[in-house]
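User: Run a structure prediction on this.
Assistant: Running it now.
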Amino acid sequence: MRIQESGEDYLETILLLKLRNGHVRSTDIANELGYAKPSISRAVGILTQEGYITVGEKGYIAFTEKGQLKANEIYERHRLITEYLTLTLGIDRETADKDACRIEHVISSETFDGIKSFVLGKQNYTGAL
């Protein structure tokens, strides 16, 4: 079963928070996204049920192997699409980042593979946003 767009957004947010802070709790996600805590609790429950994350007794969220792989995939799409939009179209990074967040959920594998090949073939690609 394919994960929904909102689930992908949550996984990407968890990944970015883990990279930034070293740990993540539901309140961190709520603060980052500006969503109500009940919405976050529901999403965390779904992601746990679907085997993407676990929640420890102190409320810390950890990825399962499946969740880590999916979060990395989503984040890679986001980074490379952002870079592609800036390199090829001259879009400013902030706009490209926002657009990439929407595009990453609907782009075909074939098109993404082309973008990935293009961006990775450019010598000035650093991998950073």
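The first strand starts at residue 53 and ends at 55.
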